Structures are given as structure tokens and as C-alpha cells.
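User: Quick sanity check before I run a bigger batch. Here is a single chain. Can you write out its predicted 3D structure?
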Amino acid sequence: MDIWRFMLSCLTVLVLSGCAISIDEPNPQAEPEGEQAGTEQDMPQDEQQTEDEEKASKNMLTQIFEHFFEPSAEDLSQIDEEQAKQLHYLALGDSLTDGVGDEYSQDGYVGRLADSLLAWPSISDVEVDNRGKRGRRSDQLLKLVKKGHYDEELQEAQLISLTMGGNDVMKVVRQDLFNLKRDAFDKELLAYKERYSKIVEGIRAKKSDSALITHWFL
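Assistant: Done. Predicted structure follows.
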């Protein structure tokens, strides 16, 4: 498997996950028009709308992950299933990594990514070590990386993902909620970029041969 192609696909999926995406998907098992109309009439309007929204969300995530992570015929022809190995996946970051807000209880993007990777015959299992923490900021993660808090986990990891930035923004908001100015965000952006670069450098210094997916907000 081409590692650079894999990293680019992962990064694209994460960027898409931060956007509002709508996909209309035909249902091959749709009920006959008359029968379907009768069923919808019997269902309260708000319940029908909720069900439609849940289906659309599931279809969106399914299509994204299937498109980017299902191996092609060419990939499959180059894979020896007998040599399949376990993949160690380390997820670092904030509540997005932790899976907070995932209404389907699939461990957020980390769980979905792990499940999608199993489509590759060269991967027998994905061992996920999710170290995401709600409320974590970049300055806090940088301190942990410098202290060697994740040294053991980084040595074992073959795939590392990192999401960070939302709580850095919220810190600025909380500091001056009723008198927010753009200058405060611009100043924080510069400091954030420097911290984020140091986080990535710290990870690379301890583990240079792992694929690293990064997704940041600010």
C-alpha cells in the first residue's frame, strides 16, 4: 500500500468531516409508492424528519469512508492476505478525537476510521489507543509531548492522528466574552501555529516512521 496515497486520503476525509456535506442517495429497496405513502402518513411529521436526517447522516459517513478507504482492485492484487498484520493506531487530541457528540456511539471519526481500515486484507486487526480528552488545548498537549507522556504509545503506533484547536479558540472567547476583537484571535492564531508545529515536531522526533494525520481548527 502506497503510504503517501493513504495519508492523503486520510487527511482529505478529516477535512471533509469539518464541513457540511449533503449527499442524496437512491434507495434500491424503496417500498412501492402507495405503501410508502401510507407509512409516512401514519408517522408524525417530526419523527419522519428525524428519521430522514439520521439516514442522510449515516449515508454521508458511509460513502465518505467507503470511497477513501475501500481498497481498489489494483490494491487487492498486490496484497498477500497471509501476511496480514495488526495495525496500532494512536489518536491524540481533544473532544473530536474522544468522540464527544457522536450521536451514533461509533467513537467519532476515530472509530469509523478504524473500522474502515479493516477493509484492507493486509490489516488483520486495528488496535486503537484513543488518548483524546475533552477540553484539551494545544499548549496542554505540547507540554505532555515534551514531558514524554506519550513516549511508549508513540513507539508502538504505526498510525497517529491529531485534532486540535477548538478549545484554543474557546479560551480566547472566555477571556473577553463581551468585548471580543479580531486582534485577540489573530494573536492567538500565531501562537497556536507555533505550538502546533512543535507538537508535530515532537511526535516526529519520537516516532518518525508512522503515518501522521493532522486536522486543526483556528
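The chain is about 55% helix and 15% strand.

User: Great, the batch can go ahead then.
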